[in-house]
Amino acid sequence: MRSELAEIAFEGRTLRLEYAWLNAAQRDAPLLVFLHEALGTLTLWRDFPQRLCDAAGTRGLVYSRYGYGGSTARPPREPWPLDYLEREARQLLPAFLRAVGAPAKPWLFGHSDGASIALIYAGTFPESLAGAVVLAPHIFVEDATIAGVAAARRSYETTDLRQRLERYHPDPDDAFWRWHDRWVDPAFRNWNIEALLPAIRCPLLAIQGEGDEYATMAQLDGIKRLVPQSEILKLAACRHSPHRDQPQEVVDAVSWFIQSAAS
User: Cβ of 32: how many Cβ atoms within 10 Å?
Assistant: First the structure.
């Protein structure tokens, strides 16, 4: 996909975020904004956004968040603040959507960290979305999350994970350790967004693999309890990335959900 750069102001800095439109000619179609995971980028989505947008009859907007891929790098080794997900949702995402001229009520599609950002945005700006789809969301920190991050560290140190990330990040060490250090920090253990969820008013679909190595089903169960209108899909034989492990099941479920919400 051909990417462009959007310029936004954030905390006294001018940032440039790489982004790409999908199915841009379908101007009357709903817009689906893709929010990647903690080590993701625009290109790491591969062909999934196009596949989903084609099936659902939507436009797409894919971008790399601040510090990722071809977007502006963060200052070297500067740790993420404890509220980094809230800052992404409440400041960076709205500024980005304004900069690219997104419609007033898009859909959000988030994975992992991106899913948490989508939930925070939906709870903070309840009238600003047509709907949201979240894959493997985190609404609080679990023992399983810490164990998953520790396993990722072992992979980073002993396998070719670093070399694979180097294809997408100018500084893979910075991207990896910034994420790792935040989630294993004892000060982050109390991070929790449950109090925000009852404010969500838009249609919400939450999907998680039953073999998720970073979380238990307590995440989806908590969403269903706090957002009664939400739809929950638990996928067997699926890990932390449902759109990679079971792409057709995700495409079918999301397409049906978006089309049902519009009818």
Answer: 26
**Average pLDDT over every residue of 98-116:** 97
pLDDT tens per residue, range 190-242: 999 999 999 999 999 999 999 999 999 999 999 999 999 999 999 999 999 99
Tally the domains of the chain: 1
Pairing label, strands 13-22, 59-63: antiparallel
What CA–CA distance (Å, rounded) separates 44 from 243? 12
Q: What are the φ/ψ torsions at residue 91 (nearest 5 degrees)?
A: -120, -55
Closest-CA residue to 108 (of 42, 51, 61, 145)? 61
What CATH number is given to the structural domain containing 20?
A: 3.40.50.1820
pLDDT digits (tens, 9 = 90+) for 77-97: 778 899 999 999 999 999 999
Q: Residue 9: pLDDT above 80?
A: yes
Residue-range definition of the domain harbouring residue 232: 4-262
pTM for this entry? 0.97
* Angle between helix 143-158 and 172-184 (nearest 10): 150
Characterise 136 by phi-psi region: left (phi > 0), alpha (psi -120 to 50), beta (else). left
How crowded is residue 136: how many other Cβ atoms within 10 Å of its Cβ? 28
